[in-house]
Amino acid sequence: MTYRTKLGSTTAIALALALTGTALQAQEQDTLLDEVVLGYTADGTPITAGDNTTGIDEDDLRAQGGTQSTDDILRTQTSVFTQQNPSNPGVAVNIRGFEGSGRVSTMVDGVPQNYRFTGHAAQGYTYIDENLMAGIDITRGATTTAGGSGIAGSVNFRTLSAMDVVRDQGMGGMVRFSYGDNGADLSAMVAAAYADENFEALFALSGHEANNFVDGDGVAVPNTGKDNWSGLVKLAYHIDDRQSLSFSGLNYNSNFFANSYQQEFYSDTYKLGYMFDAGNGLVNLTANAYFAETQTEYVAGGIWSVGRVMQTRTTGLNLTNISEFAPGAWDVVSINGLDFSRDKLDGERAGVNPADGQSKRFSLFSENIFVNGPWEITAGVRYNSYKVSGDASRGPVDLRYSSVDPKLTVAYQVNDWLQPYVTVSRASRAPTLQETMLGGTHPGGGLGMIANPDLKPERSTGYELGFNIERSNLLQDGDRLSGRVNYYRMDVENYVIATFGFTNSFGQNGAAFVNVPGTSQTSGVEVELNYESAKVDVGLSFTKNDSDMPSQLAGLGTGQYLPDSTWSLRVAGHFLDDKLTVGGQYNYVSGGLYSTPYSGSAVQRDETYELVDIFATYEINDNFVLNAKVSNLFDKTYVPWLADSRNGPGRSVYFGGEMRF
Predict the structure, then answer these.
(1) Does residue 37 carry a pLDDT above 60?
(2) What does DSSP say about strands 261-277 and 243-258: parallel, antiparallel, or unpaired?
(3) Which of 149-153, 233-237, 365-369, 400-404 has the lowest mean pLDDT?
(4) What is the mean pLDDT of the chain?
(5) 425: number of CA atoms within 13 Å, CB side?
(6) Greatest extent of the chain over all pairs of C-alpha atoms, in Å
(7) Which helix (H) or strand (E) holds 62?
(8) What are phi and psi of 71, to 5 degrees?
């Protein structure tokens, strides 16, 4: 697997612009812009040399056995985990021990996914069909530019574009299929696309059928089957050689049994984009307007909450402009823009989750990269304004906050392969509607939940010290060693957890979300190394985590602690003129401080587990690729970290392929 390490030397790394989410062909850029802007996210936000980012592309997804599990892919990345509920098809991303309620900003094609849920589960999920994915971009730490609303990082799931199907011009089609023997059953996707110099179009449909899987002891794990189906439409029009318009629409549907109820779920995401490049180096503008709607309904199951409906609507826009100029001895790339979004809740019989209220976020940002010889300095600042409003059971809630969050990275190119760097940053996260306006009682009565109209935003001060390496021709001509080794620390003020026996400003007493006094701290070491040669690829990720963060309260969220350490080692060999790739992956998860969705407090969990996967891909020709994977090769019985108490899947065999025509 090839990971694109984004904090890189501007003089040592050969950098290429990635396609934007509008699927428009990359335009030529000046040399400096090529060096400090390493690519673009789906909303046109540039990925700069000051970002601690990992990119997973289509080949990486296929190497995982045909994009079978987004959870499995993310759990092999440095300092990345997921809050896993095998009954729920959603993905809840954890970075550096932070998850839920927007601590990790999660997007699909650059559109924020702000669906939240309070219960014995993750505090928010993102729903994405693996068959429609073209890649994943992961950023650790504070983000200054568009999408920088979290304190721990961001994840953007990129979907297919017309150029992923056609690859040139004219008509084209794609079929993806897979079959798994352990509950995964059948998955298939069909796409049709057209592209020429002026117009691009993509239409895709995907479906999954899954039954309950069995664990390493051969025992069926209940309620792990689910049926999902999705549709994707993308259109792009090149007005001229400087302007482009784009549209994307994504629909996701699922039936599953989670939280004691059968649920009918849908998620719709729409985006309209505009790009303008004046050609003068000063105006290179990307604008996006978007709308997302997510809803779940409890249709059967338990006796208390059948008929529950929870809906979140998100509308917003972002603007990003990139300028390039050279005052004196310094070359400068300046990235400036704004973010605006609004979440509005609706629903019926929503229980402790609010079914009314809205939150608004507005941000202005500027990130400036200064380059002079071996020196590279990235100075950014983000102004944030938040508003949370609604009606709690005893009165109105109207919270307003603002913050100014700077970020500074200083890097020095020691030689042609080594670049030490240091980063200092601030980031803020506003309380969500679900945290602020908690209410109602536990199903069946008893424990009362109350709002906290005085909840404050979390504020994180981050430090990162490390070095980036990029060495070619290390062991043989044409090989390449790249990666990053770094230490990080996050000091978080006003960390939000739930607690019992709180009295709010309305005079109510009960369970509520509150700010932890003082500063909570987490730190760790991250290693991400990749070696590529004509015959062998090796990837290593390692995370050492040390957290003093308070524990989340079960039932109003769930545990977020990372294991004390994780290892992932991947080795792949290329044969038959690179047509055949065969490899394996070893994953180690240690013990550590742990809490489950149903435990009252965190305890030390000493059980470790190790998993081995093997995989293969074979390119029959340029348009037809077969892939196979055996996960949990030795059929181990284990309980995944950051999951409920149910065992993970036993040995599972997958077979699939991808065909273009």
Answers:
(1) no
(2) antiparallel
(3) 149-153
(4) 89
(5) 35
(6) 73
(7) helix 58-63
(8) -55, -50
Calpha distance 402→396 (Å, rounded): 20
User: Which residue in 540, 542, 546 sits closest to 524, CA to CA?
Assistant: 546
As a whole number of Å, the CA-based R_g of the chain is 24
* Chain Cα centroid distance, residue 385: 23
CA angle (43 as vertex; 310, 543 as ends), nearest 5: 80
Beta bridge partners of 482: 470, 530
Task: Read off the pLDDT band of 57 (50, 70, 90).
Answer: confident
pLDDT in tens, 551-597: 888 778 888 899 999 999 999 999 999 999 999 999 999 999 887 76
Instruction: Dump the DSSP string for 273-295.
Output: EEEEE-SSSS-EEEEEEEEEEEE
In angstroms, the CA 11 to CA 468 distance is 12
**pLDDT tens profile 438-465:** 998 877 667 789 999 999 999 999 999 9
| Tokens, residue 629 | 């994977």
CA 582 vs CA 94, 182, 433, 537: distances in Å = 30, 22, 48, 10
**Domains in the chain, ordered, with CATH?**
4-216+224-519+527-660 (2.40.170.20)
- If residue 73 lies in a helix (H) or strand (E), which one and from where to where? helix 70-74
Q: Which residues contact 508 (CB under 8 A, 6 or more apart)?
A: 393, 394, 448, 450, 451
Which residues, in sequence order, are CB contacts of 219 under 8 Å at separation 6+?
647
* pLDDT band for position 1 (cuts 50, 70, 90): very low
Taking a C-beta distance cutoff of 8 angstroms, is the pair 230, 253 a contact? yes
- How do beta strands 153-159 and 104-108 pair? parallel
Phi, psi angles (nearest 5°) of residue 31: -60, -45
Task: Report the SS3 class of residue 33.
Answer: helix
- Quote the pLDDT of residue 275: 97
Residue length of the chain: 661
Residue 429: pLDDT over 80:
yes
AA letter at 249: G
CB atoms within 10 A of CB 16: 10
Tokens standing for 51?
């970002």
Q: What is the average per-residue pLDDT within 488-492? A: 97
Strand partners, 547: 522
Q: Do the Cβ atoms of 642 and 84 come closer than 8 Å?
A: yes
Q: List the beta strands (DSSP E) in 393-439.
A: 395-412, 418-429
Q: Are 630 and 650 in contact (CB under 8 A)?
A: no
**What is the distance between the alpha carbons of residues 522 and 248, in angstroms, rounded to a whole number?**
39
- What percent of the chain stands above pLDDT 90? 74
Nearest to 260 by CA among 215, 305, 213: 305
